[in-house]
Amino acid sequence: MSSVRLAPRRRKFAAEYVKNGFNGVQAIAAAGYSMGYNAACVEASRLLRNPKVYAKVEEHIAKSKMDADEVAKEIASVARTKTPISGPDKMKALDLLTKINGMITQKIETVEPDVSSFLSNRIKISAQKSNISEPQAACKLFDTLLEWGSEHADPANFGPWAEIVANHAKAQQNGENEQITEIGDQ
Fold this sequence. Notes:
By secondary structure, the protein is mostly helical. The chain folds into three domains: 8-64, Terminase, small subunit, N-terminal DNA-binding domain, HTH motif (Arc Repressor Mutant, subunit A, Orthogonal Bundle); 68-100, no CATH class; 115-173, no CATH class.
């Protein structure tokens, strides 16, 4: 890769841009430009649009990349060091090293949302806000979920109102206009 020729401050900006985690304002300041925040934002943007400066940034990125073997060697050297380092740092290095070497596989658990509890809470809130009964709110929510094509539009998800919602769904399929009653009044 041929080195791009730049003025010293531009070259310093490119190096600092990569070093500072791609923060243009910090790179502007570190490169010796003296200006306010807004002007620094504009100048950083302008410099990054310059093909020569951008090529220099890419050069610095390429130089700073480590391959997997280099990373593993660096972590191994931290883990094996005889000089005193803090326990958590050494443990973290060992943990990373074992993961890199495939010695430990991480178990990822997924947590399924409790749809029934969520819908029950939503029904109670809706009933209070709309000044309707909870069974009416349950049927109204069921209709909305059906309209949206939600996978949760299943009467079984409606907890204590499951039977009422199932009857409501059945009546709608048959084209009937049923009267929604309280639990136990059926």
